[in-house]
Amino acid sequence: MERKSDILQSLGIDYPIIQAPMLGATTPAMVAAVSNAGGLGSLPVGGLSPDKTLELIQKTKELTNKPFAVNLFAHSIGAVDEVQVARMQEFMLQLAAKYNLPLGRQDFEPFQFYTYKEQIDILVKERIPIVSFTFGILNDESIAALQASGSILIGTATCAKEAVLLQERGIDMIAAQGIEAGGHRGSFLLEEPLPQIALMALLPQLADSVQLPIIAAGAIYNRATMRAAFALGAQAVQVGTAFLASHESATIAAHKAALSTAADTDSMLTRAFSGRWARGLRNTFAEELVRAGISIPDYPIQNSITAKFRALAQQQNNKELTNLWAGQAAHKAEVKSTKEIFEGLVKDWKGINHEYEKENF
Ligand SMILES: Cc1cc2nc3c(=O)[nH]c(=O)nc-3n(C[C@H](O)[C@H](O)[C@H](O)COP(=O)(O)O)c2cc1C
Fold it and tell me: What's the CATH code, domain 2-77+113-262+328-360?
């Protein structure tokens, strides 16, 4: 309990419940609803332009004066393989024709990638109290600049080795992302096989490996799952998919509807949409890419190649042709306001806290 209240104080929140950053789904309204209710909202800005980053931060600040986190992507960008890219673009055109999406050659604009390095100054100026990141580790200069301006840094780890590296670089807290989690894997030891460690195995190993506070992420949505995370060594939980069907979520209606009927077996890991492993619901797009067997460019190149295709599918509310990120407990995503979903989690957490108090006295 000691460590739990420490984390509340460090993050400036009332409950150890964090709304996971979810690029493409999380809106300023979602972030503010959670922060206003005493949790920690997280605003994802990974890969966005500096202008968009500032706009979203300012919008969120208009909706809450409570602390919220801003989330960055810390990946590096590899060389573009022109042949591989041309083959993938050709395939996307064929797929679009097959499914009647009006995709044209002109829709593959020259690549323009933004990195976190272009966002750090904005975060420093805006005095963001908590900065979380995934896909890697920020460089030393960025870490120093953010910490000097008072930011607490949360890095994502999917195995013990990543957590140790984050600790060695002076990061303040670890978000432990189990293989159950929806969306992109935060894994960054790219020369090694993808870690596929479930949260139940990951949490105690991280608790043994690092001294930092640990935040558990992956298929958490109620009293039992939060209790398990705390029992296994987490000081806070980070909840994503459970907020995906909320009124404040920007995902398309067909995605929200698909969550409620999803079976546990509908979940898959795929590189098809972005070039980076991510968990979502199985659909036609992912299956078509597997069937085609063509090599998929790395993130963020593939992400950029498929961007317009996915946007067109989303305009048609077509769940078969765009990414349906979701964790393994997808069907627990309820169609309610973010505030109601968060209050349900708080009620569950209070129950757990009450049990602990009884045990301690
Ligand atoms: C739609 C979606 C988008 C996501 N985008 C991000 C992101 O931008 N940054 C990040 O650190 N994690 C991202 N994640 C991962 C979440 O932060 C978190 O690890 C995950 O949602 C926890 O598992 P759960 O979805 O089962 O609750 C995303 C997850 C989802 C479902």
Answer: 3.20.20.70
- Any idea which residue has 């500032």 for tokens? 54
Q: How far is the CA of 360 from the centre of ligand 1 (A)?
A: 34
Which residue puts its alpha carbon closest to atom 6 of ligand 1?
A: 22
CA 29 – CA 354 distance, rounded (Å): 31
- 11: tokens are 């993050």
Cα-to-centroid distance, 63 and ligand 1 (Å) = 22
CA of 183 to the centre of ligand 1 (A): 5
SS3 269: strand
Q: Give yes or no for a cis peptide into 297 (omega within 30° of 0).
A: no
Rounded to whole angstroms, how far apart are CA atoms 221 and 228? Answer: 11
* Nearest-atom index, ligand 1, CA of 133: 11
Distance CA 9, CA 12 (A): 5
CA distance 179 to 104: 36
Domain coordinates in residue numbering, the chain: 2-77+113-262+328-360, 79-112+284-323
Q: Of the candidates 273, 271, 287, 276, which has an alpha carbon nearest to the alpha carbon of residue 188?
A: 276
Pocket test for ligand 1, best of 184, 202, 310 (most atoms within 8 A of CB): 184
pLDDT tens for 211-265 read 999 999 999 999 999 999 999 999 999 999 999 999 999 999 999 999 999 999 9
What residues contact 214, with CB distance under 8 A and at least 6 apart?
A: 173, 174, 176, 203, 206, 207, 233, 234, 235
> For 44-103, what is each residue's pLDDT tens digit?
999 999 999 999 999 999 999 999 999 999 999 999 999 999 999 999 999 999 999 999
Helix axes 82-98, 284-292, angle to 10 degrees: 130
Report whether residue 305 contacts ligand 1, using a CB cutoff of 6 Å. no
Kindly give the number of the ligand 1 atom that is closest to the alpha carbon of 327.
26
Reference 219, options 206, 202, 204; nearest CA is 202
Work out which ligand 1 atom sits closest to the CA atom of 23: 8
- Please give the span between the terminal C-alpha atoms of the chain, in angstroms, as a whole number: 13
